[in-house]
Amino acid sequence: MRYISTRGQAPPVSFLDAVLNGMAPDGGLYVPESWPRGLDSAEARADIGQRDHLEIAAHILRAFAGDDLTIEEAYALALKAYSHNLGSFDSRVVTPLVQLGGGHWVLELFHGPSLSFKDIAMQLIGPLYDHALATRDQRLTVVCATSGDTGGAAVEALKGRDRVDLFVLTPKGRVSEVQRRFMTTSGASNIHALEVDGDFDACQAVAKALFADQDFSARASLSGVNSINWARIVAQSVYFYATACLLSGPGRVNFVVPTGNFGDAYSGWVAKQLGAPVGKIALATNANDILDRALLSGRYERASNSVATLSPAMDIQVASNFERILFDAVGRSGDVISSLYNQFSRDGGFDIPADARALLGENFCAASVSDVSTLEEMGFRWREGYLACPHTAVGLHLPQEEFALEEEFHAPIVYLATAHPAKFPETVERATGVRPQLPPKCADLFQRSEKFDSLPADAEAVKQYIRERSRAWR
Ligand SMILES: *Cc1c(COP(=O)(O)O)cnc(C)c1O
């Protein structure tokens, strides 16, 4: 299995190289040269109820890794990530399904160590990095720009790992205290939390500048675990695949995905390409609605700045992974994507080609939800017996008419619950009157001591900081 860049200029690489590199050297994102087969057969799908998350993850990982992992190795990695005996996940089934009523389900993705869905991918990336770096006798500097939850999940996954130093860039004042504490209290010497004076897009711009500096990037052995990392997409496709196979009757299963970087939503598309009966994928955005606008108007265009909302992990104006779906939607032409994204950096937007718009419209729908509606939805759901975090509530608020496609109308709808309510206690309390409690495994979070540094949103300052601290530096 080889991986090509969405911009068409970088040479193809193996699975492990795609995972270790993060972004392709031509500025594009890695995608598989073709979709793996074998998971689309009726047999593979029929006995899904007999398999647990870890086993399905091993099979999907192996399918995408090709020759880079044997099935035994894939299974061993999935075991380290998801085994109930290791206790990383509260729930024995990793991603429990809760029925709200009728054909409405919530897929809870927040039972990992840092209480957001990002743990599901990150817990797998930790052992995967160890495996890849040990076989190559290499060290890595991981840089991660985060709007909150990726940072905590990366810290939990990479803390104490001998071959990796992690630098987390987070926008000052834009993350909740619980989110921040998951990044700053690990006590591990290989973890560096950096508070950057700017918004998430500024953090992302700094990270991009580090990767774009080829000399720096090579000397630091730079890698990213942001939502563009291919391993994250693979790990997230597992719950879409499993849930769609499990709940589909004769038809298909619709998903509602609270969206920022389009990573989770794209994983749903990947599961569909693997043959899972995924119907529509509904993109639920907050006021940062670039995806909603793009689907509606056909123009993908950044707004002047991201807006701070009650669902901060989605306060993103540039949805990185959208490039991957566009690549498929324009018939996998690197030239077209290159030219569109050149336009994007020049003019701040581009028109989505007509064919691509049609494919997007068949597979996705979108809506933007205000903070007021988010609070109302949380209150309403709590009175019905379900306590949701604000991101999850953005999804729960999506109008059902979004699914009024003839074929899909009676199909189940699965709402992804992306964070634990206790990760956003003030907002949850404001909406419901209930102060959600942290689960026992992290009940002492507010007693732990914090360690972080503050830096300007300036790539040179961050480079200097990393140069002085990375053990990978040559
Ligand atoms: C990251 C995150 C999202 C958005 O996920 P993307 O893959 O970036 O679209 C939604 N909800 C929560 C809680 C998150 O942490």
Structure in a nutshell:
With 474 residues, the chain is of the alpha/beta class. It is built from 19 helices and 16 strands.
How would you describe this protein?
- This protein is globular.
- The longest helix is centred in the first third of the chain and has 19 residues, at 118-136.
- It has a 6-stranded mixed beta sheet with strand order 4-5-15-10-11-14. Strands 9-6-7-8-16 form a 5-stranded parallel beta sheet, sandwiched between helices. Strands 2-1-3 form a 3-stranded antiparallel beta sheet.
- It is of the alpha/beta class.
- It has 19 helices and 16 strands.
- It has a domain at 97-115 and 230-432: Rossmann fold (3-Layer(aba) Sandwich), CATH 3.40.50.
- α13 crosses α15 (354-363).
- It has helices at residues 15-21, 42-46, 53-65, 71-82, 118-136, 149-158, 177-184, 200-212, 214-220, 230-247, 263-273, 290-297, 322-329, 334-347, 354-363, 371-383, 390-396, 425-432, 459-469, and strands spanning 2-5, 13-14, 30-32, 97-101, 104-108, 140-145, 164-171, 191-197, 222-224, 253-258, 278-285, 299-301, 349-351, 364-368, 413-417, 453-456.
- The chain binds pyridoxal-5'-phosphate.
- Pyridoxal-5'-phosphate is lined by residues 116, 118, 149, 227, 258-265, 313-314, 391, 418-419.
